[in-house]
Amino acid sequence: MQPSPTQQNPRIEYERRLEDRSGKVQAFVRQSDRFSSLRGLVFIAGIAVLLASTVWGALSLKWIAAPILAFVLLIILHARCLRRLKRARQAETYYQTSLDRLNHQWIDVRPAGDEYYDPQHMYAGDLDLLGRGSLFQLICSARTKLGEETLARWLLTPASAKEIRARQQSVEELRNELDFRETLELLEAEKQSDIEQTHLSDWVRQPLIQIPAGLKWASMVTGVFAALAVISWLMSYSGIAPICVAIIIQVCLLFCIGSRIRELLNQTDEVRDGLSVLSDVLSLIEQRKFHSPHLTAIITALQTDGVPPSRSIAQLRRNIQGLNNCFRNQFSAPLTILLGIPFHYMFAIERWLQRVGPHCPEWLAAVGEFEALCSLAGYAYEHPEDPFPEIADPAEGPRFEGTELGHPLIPLDQVVRNDVTLNSEHRLLMISGSNMSGKSTLMRTVGTNFVLALAGAPVRATRLTVTPMQAGTAMRVQDSLQQGASLFYQSVARLSAVVHLADAPEPVLFLLDEILQGTNSHDRRIGAQSVIETLIERGGIGIVTTHDLALTEITSLFGSQAKNVHFEDQLIDGKMTFDYRMRPGIVEHSNALELMKMMGIELKALDPEQNPESADLKQ
């Protein structure tokens, strides 16, 4: 799927919108200053009228109503102006952040996603998917934890071919919907709250209030009796005794379920703000008319008995607010308790939880999915040159065939692109090369674009065909003093985990950097060959990098299925340079000694007689 021909230039559009929002900020600031001045003048006028009427007797006291009303009106208008100013500033920040992202100044601007990192994940750490400067931080524009969690899950878990294609269609539709994405983000920012998924999910799944039927009827009858008693007392038909009796009965009824009422009030305090955000976000989503089948299906599935979720949540919020007023509003509490109104709200909340509550997790999931899709859509909009990958049929065998692949975390004007082909006919790339020449970066380029493709996002390439499959990497392997594990032990443990992935029916994309470092060349050759043979025999495809040129001989075991390629450096006027271009064949020289010389380390020739271990290894 190629970029839309009507794709806007993101930089020009962001700059235009930033200028517009900045102009609105300045206009609202001037308007706010005028309101402040007018309020001051009206206040002074009010003091003058008060003095004129009370001290000098020149005016009637009733004239004080005019400045009071004018002052109240100015307060209302000023408050509305300040709300608009706040929203304009948020929009200004939104587009400034978007421009910063285009200028590669996005690190520390957005959440890094550290809380979603699992050190046992098979590739998240090696591919910089989460954390500071990660792919998650580049893409994520979600303002709620729901959206962040969904996006992180998509980056960490390959989707099926059907899911990927559905996300691609949705992202393509949302790509140019800047107004919708801006409104969604500003709506959530304006609330200054988050949707507490755990609190909401736990609350709607809790046991129902289960007020005994007898209490329900007793409260209703007593409420009617109390209303009649109040009317009778107001019309002087009876004394206050019936009202007192009704109050005593209602208090006794409330006492029977007092602990449940307190528990319910505390729970609603925890979910009230989240419900407000959820309702407004769902309302915004419901108002849009989408065309992609996936987005349309999400909205259709949200309705309960034909009622949009935002309307259902608004009904619940009114009942929660009413119940709070019954006990926490000192002016209305006596009358509401007398009439049994708390029971009415509790019955309504109980009915809502029973009828609508089971759908709440679906609403939360929908909000998270929309935010994640909007994050991918924003990334797609800001990278119009990046196409959506072609998702191949898994029945055709594993495929990762990319033309002009580049790393998405490297600025566009600095990225160097290479072609990579891995499939059933070409299962292994063995990469040799000098230090810092680009071997590991190429592996991360393949892995990161693999993650983007299977999440439903565009990829940094001119073309990519990929099959949904598993992935396993062994790149940033370190020893652990706390665990008492050496570098070699950690390498073996990681390789074992990658090999075990291949036990599943799905093929594996393996990316192994400096395989089995930490042991001698003889053992390394045998171990590396065994690992690679196992992975390929089980249907895997992948890349292996090495400094040990003896490992490049492994490719001869696989015939045309394996290929040696390399990266190299050039020493020009004593300066080491790299072009980061992948070339066919095995590297012909190393730069380790030259690099040591450049760092000021004096090198001396080895005497085999003084280094018997080295001599033994050569034999």
Looking at this protein, list some descriptive labels.
619 residues; alpha/beta; MutS, DNA mismatch repair protein, Chain A, domain 3; Rossmann fold; 3 domains; six-stranded mixed sheet; four-stranded mixed sheet
Write the layout of secondary structure elements.
Blueprint: H1 10-54, H2 65-102, H3 135-139, H4 145-156, H5 161-174, H6 178-191, H7 197-205, H8 213-234, H9 241-256, H10 258-287, H11 293-302, H12 309-328, H13 333-338, H14 341-355, H15 360-382, E1 390-391, E2 400-405, E3 418-422, E4 428-433, H16 439-455, E5 463-466, E6 470-474, H17 487-501, E7 508-513, H18 521-537, E8 541-546, E9 562-567, E10 569-572, E11 575-578, E12 583-584, H19 592-598, H20 612-618
Parallel strand pairs: 1-5, 4-8, 4-9, 6-7, 7-8
Antiparallel strand pairs: 2-3, 2-5, 9-12, 10-11
Helix pairs in contact: 1-2, 2-6, 4-15, 4-16, 5-15, 6-10, 7-10, 8-9, 8-14, 10-12, 10-15, 11-15, 12-14
How is this structure best described in words?
By secondary structure, the protein is an alpha/beta fold. It has helices spanning 10-54, 65-102, 135-139, 145-156, 161-174, 178-191, 197-205, 213-234, 241-256, 258-287, 293-302, 309-328, 333-338, 341-355, 360-382, 439-455, 487-501, 521-537, 592-598, 612-618, and strands at residues 390-391, 400-405, 418-422, 428-433, 463-466, 470-474, 508-513, 541-546, 562-567, 569-572, 575-578, 583-584. The strands form three sheets. Strands 6-7-8-4-9-12 form a six-stranded mixed β-sheet, with helices on both faces. The chain has a four-stranded mixed β-sheet with strand order 1-5-2-3. Strand 10 (569-572) and strand 11 form a beta hairpin. Mean pLDDT is 82; it is low at 612-619.
